[in-house]
Amino acid sequence: MAKTVNTYCQICITNCGLEIQVDEASNRVLSIAPDRQNPYSWGDFCRKGKTAGEVIEHPRRITRPMRRVADGEYVEATYAEAIADIAHRLNAIIDRGGPDAVATYHGNPMGFSFSTTTFWTGFLDAIGTGNRFWVGSLDENNVHVVFEELYGTGYLGLVPDIDACDCFLLVGMDPAQSRFNWLDSNPSGWNRVLQRQRDGADVIVVDPRRSTSAERARTHVAVLPGQDWAFLLGVLKVIVELGLDKRPSAVPVTGIDAVKRLTAEADLDQLAQRCGVERAVIEDVARRFGSARTAMCLSHTGVSHSEYGTIAEWLGQLLNIVTDRLDRPGGRRYERGYVDLQRVLKLFGSPNRHQTRLRRNPPVFGFHSVAELPDEITTPGPGQIRAMVIAFGNPVVSGPQGEALDAALAGLDLLVAVDLVQRESHRHAHWLIPGTHWLEREELSPLLANVQERPFVQYAQRAVSPPDGVMEEWEFFTELALAMGRNLFGRRGVNRVIRATRWVAARTGRRALALNPEWVSRLLVASGRRLKWRDIRAHPHGWLFGEPRFGDLADVIVTDDKQVHAAPDRFLRAVRAALATPPSTDEEFPLLLVNKRVREAMNSWLNESPGLFAAQRTSVVEVHPRDAACAGVHDGDLVRLTSSVGSVELRAKVTDAMRQGVVCVPHGWGSRVFDPVSGAAPQSFGVNRNALVSNTRLDPFSQVPAFNSTAVRLNPAAQHDTASSKTDVSLP
Ligand SMILES: Nc1nc2c(c(=O)[nH]1)N[C@H]1C(S)=C(S)[C@@H](COP(=O)(O)OP(=O)(O)OC[C@H]3O[C@@H](n4cnc5c(=O)[nH]c(N)nc54)[C@H](O)[C@@H]3O)O[C@H]1N2
Ligand SMILES: Nc1nc2c(c(=O)[nH]1)N[C@H]1C(S)=C(S)[C@@H](COP(=O)(O)OP(=O)(O)OC[C@H]3O[C@@H](n4cnc5c(=O)[nH]c(N)nc54)[C@H](O)[C@@H]3O)O[C@H]1N2
Ligand code: SF4
Ligand SMILES: [Mo]
Questions:
Q1: Are residues 202 and 310 in the same domain?
Q2: 3-class SS at 336?
Q3: Domain with 15 in it: what CATH number?
């Protein structure tokens, strides 16, 4: 019999509402369609959501714990065996090297599962390791750093008020391709921006390539990769000089004078030269942004993935602050959701004060940078990492210089991977632990409410059951901590409560009486005092529980004086240092490599899904006709891209969408999917362009690598690739 289940897609943060047909007898997903009754996201949907069922039925899916018996050879095991062995080995490693000898990495999809996030945190605190690594160091860490400095907290929901915005300054983002999402969720966001444009709003896209979004926008500014800071500082300077700045009215702000002094010091012609944008264009953008009735500046990965990602993010936020667009209609506002966000963060944000052993870096938002992992694993000495648990992630492909990380992982005493399939980062795993798919879980994710453009809540329903016997991830981490004899959440008594509640559950036959993630969610909902659990559950299509409010931001600023600190010293110093450093060009590697995303993949996963387009499955490097001519490369040629740390071969696509001197390759490709059950040859599509990205060239604040603005050279693949055969292309 078929049943209908309503839930939302958890592949990207658009979280489109879904209507799913399920065959109950065979426990199979029959179809996935958008949910017309979802009051918030109806209208947005894509093929990745439509084909999500293919991941559940992935022919190479891991459905039993698998133990490695020889290189590339695995045998099935029971959970009892897996947990006992892993617990024993982790404890032995901790006995020898201390808790820091165990490192962890969790990737992007974990963010959608509150149950996993909660008990993963509990597990990390049980081990007590400071060597925690996460995807934020490949993604949005720059925002956390800026939030921390300006507002006193690493995380805030600052959502855009798209429908009232008259001027969009969109920097380093391509929402036409990747949806209008990053740290905020805006269903149909890009279509609504285009609607605003048709109604007369101004849309400016800043991107070194003419992206799909840039093509549709009124203005495209082709900035030099990595130099957005100079462009944004120029815009800020002109706004101040023209007197278009206004006192922020919604939030108390200190430091504006220091910002103005900084803008006065910078020379506009020099800034224009730095960012490769004409002075007149900077002046024009400043005038339009500064004089618009309402406006917002937003920046995403195009900005964060560079050495100057944090100061560029800061300057973008300053544009909103000094023109009074913060927490104002048409700008960016604080969405308070329905739980007390700062209280929840305190619960999860265990203050990790650990410094990395070798580079002596502090964590950002509680976690270290993936860039540091290889050396931390391979360099002997006290504090060396000897074991790792990787969950929901693929850092060998998503991170920089994957080969170095791959080699390091190969030398670990213990590697445990918790995933749906065995990918590149799990290649050397001693244990593969099955993951569950979001269509197999059900839960409330209270923190998602803070990133919604409108007050919205939806409970995620389970559509199908996990394969027989497969534990949800939160259960696995709980069992592991129990088996290790270490206190979950690092708190005494928690394990005893778990055992006691389990006993009661077993005695009464009521599973819900055993401690589980819903207890935590219910508690948070109750303590937030805005919504009732049963009302949330009574809205299976999702619930718009209020109107967007302005004016809440001032209440959540937690700096010492409860004011926004617009001019943190270390940012001012960094900009002054950048201004004093002459721009460098690299004769050996004269082109700058940037990144993009494709619609039919999600980072390094889904690209093997049969229902997504096969045409996208070979990687191409997009190159400007003049750069191609200089390199002796034609459209369709097999070419070689080389950087100071790596080299890849792929096809050239010659296109004037690229700025001269810039080439583009999408990330996420070239990750293999292994078959640990049959041992069949791995599958993979495209090449891993992150092999070209150094793990030492980082934004010093966010510790994010320069995935964009990687210096490379281009040669025909056949040509002997030496420095002397370098292409002679200079930056315009
Ligand atoms: N050059 C370049 N590199 C980039 C980027 C870029 O723009 N350019 N983008 C960066 C960004 S923004 C991100 S977010 C990162 C992503 O980096 P990661 O999060 O490390 O990598 P993903 O490719 O998202 O891998 C997710 C893994 O989780 C698994 N998975 C999916 N769902 C589940 C589940 O429910 N349970 C379990 N157990 N596993 C699951 C998938 O099979 C996959 O192996 O990549 C970063 N890397
Ligand atoms: N289909 C699909 N959707 C996704 C994802 C996916 O993998 N596939 N990933 C999701 C995730 S995890 C994230 S974080 C978001 C990311 O969402 P976005 O940040 O919007 O990601 P992109 O689409 O890669 O757009 C980045 C743009 O920055 C430009 N760029 C590169 N270098 C620079 C630079 O130096 N300066 C400027 N100004 N621009 C530059 C690139 O040309 C590109 O057009 O997307 C999410 N949505
Ligand atoms: S992957 Fe597609 S269907 Fe899923 S949430 Fe994102 S846009 Fe919506
Ligand atoms: Mo991301």
A1: yes
A2: coil
A3: 3.30.200.210
- Find the helix or strand (DSSP H, E) in which 143 lies: helix 141-151
Amino acid symbol at 646:
G
Rg (CA), the chain: 25
pLDDT above 80: residue 725:
no
Closest ligand to Cα 599: 2
Confirm or reject: Cβ of 691 under 6 Å from ligand 1: no
pTM beyond 0.70: yes
Atom nearest to 301 CA in ligand 2: 19
The closest residue, in CA terms, to atom 31 on ligand 2 is 302
For residues 276-283, give the mean pLDDT.
Answer: 98
Instruction: Pick the last residue of a domain from 292, 311, 334.
Output: 334
Q: What is the pLDDT of residue 1?
A: 82
Q: How many domains does the chain have?
A: 4
Shared domain for 94 and 227, answered yes or no, is no
- Residue 487 near residue 495 (C-beta atoms within 8 A): yes
User: How many C-beta atoms lie closer than 10 Å to residue 273's C-beta?
Assistant: 16
Residue 488 and residue 358 share a domain: yes
The whole domain housing 271 covers 158-178+188-334
Q: What is the CATH number of the domain that holds 616?
A: 2.40.40.20
Q: How far, CA to CA in Å, does 110 sit from each of 136, 183, 438, 578?
A: 12, 14, 10, 36
Mean pLDDT of 234-239: 98
User: Is the pLDDT score of 723 beyond 80?
Assistant: no
Spacing, Cα 174 to ligand 2 middle (Å): 6
Q: How far is CA 70 from the centre of its chain?
A: 34
Give the model confidence (pLDDT) of 77-133 as tens digits.
999 999 999 999 999 999 999 999 999 999 999 999 999 999 999 999 999 999 999
Q: Among 287-296, 443-452, 594-603, 611-620, which range has the highest average pLDDT?
A: 287-296
